[in-house]
Amino acid sequence: MRSSSAGRWSLAVLVVVVALIVAIWPRDAEAPDSGGSGRPTGTAAPVDRRAQDDAQALAPLRAEANLQPCPAPTGTEPAGPLTGMTFECVGDGSSVDLAAALAGRPAILNLWAWWCGPCAEELPVLQEYARRAGDRVALVTVHTDPNESNALSRLVEYGVQIPGVQDGSARVQAAVEAPPVLPVTVLVRPDGSIAKVLPQPFRSVEEIAAAVETHLGVSI
């Protein structure tokens, strides 16, 4: 008799526990709709920089960095994997259609981040290459981290004034199918196609010049 009473009591406790679990379990209606793709739909657009890095906060850093202007559209019809991608110019906050700005001329995109040690060594070398190359090759840096303030501070520290765009969501890295490492140098043909993705730091102007001549046919 006692065993029967104990069993009924255990069953009652179990029912209460199950009821509590059901009460607090998240409802399907509150879960994100995956649309059948396995991923939530309606996600926010890519965030290229932190909210606190607004124009007012960046203004003194931009003035100190004094970066070269980002390239303007060439008038040639853009093509290639970067087509339609618009970014903020690190130097002045203007909008840059990257494919349109590079269309019709050979170009170098250098993917870097403020925390990247090899990038700190490479960026001054790239700047010297750009000085020697002049108008023969367009060179644009792509800051691949949301912290734009730190990017500007690092450029001041390095004494580098190459034009650059802010790409905190790493859209360029994904578009050119670059590996998730930094720095990465992307060589772009005048027709917008990618000639070569080089996931390595360059340590001399001569190394850069050799790679550009090999893959883009431009010598300096």
From TrEMBL:
PROSITE patterns in the cross-refs: THIOREDOXIN_1, THIOREDOXIN_2
Domain called Thioredoxin: residue spans: 76-217
Region (Disordered): 30-49
InterPro entries: Redoxin, Thioredoxin-like_sf, Thioredoxin_CS, Thioredoxin_domain, Thioredoxin_ResA/DsbE_sf
Keywords from the named record: Cytochrome c-type biogenesis, Disulfide bond, Redox-active center, Signal-anchor, Transmembrane
CDD domains xref list: TlpA_like_family
Pfam families on file: Redoxin
Subcellular location: Cell envelope
PANTHER family for the chain: THIOL:DISULFIDE INTERCHANGE PROTEIN DSBE
Name of the protein: TlpA family protein disulfide reductase
Organism listed in the record: Rhodococcus zopfii
Source organism phylogeny: Bacteria, Bacillati, Actinomycetota, Actinomycetes, Mycobacteriales
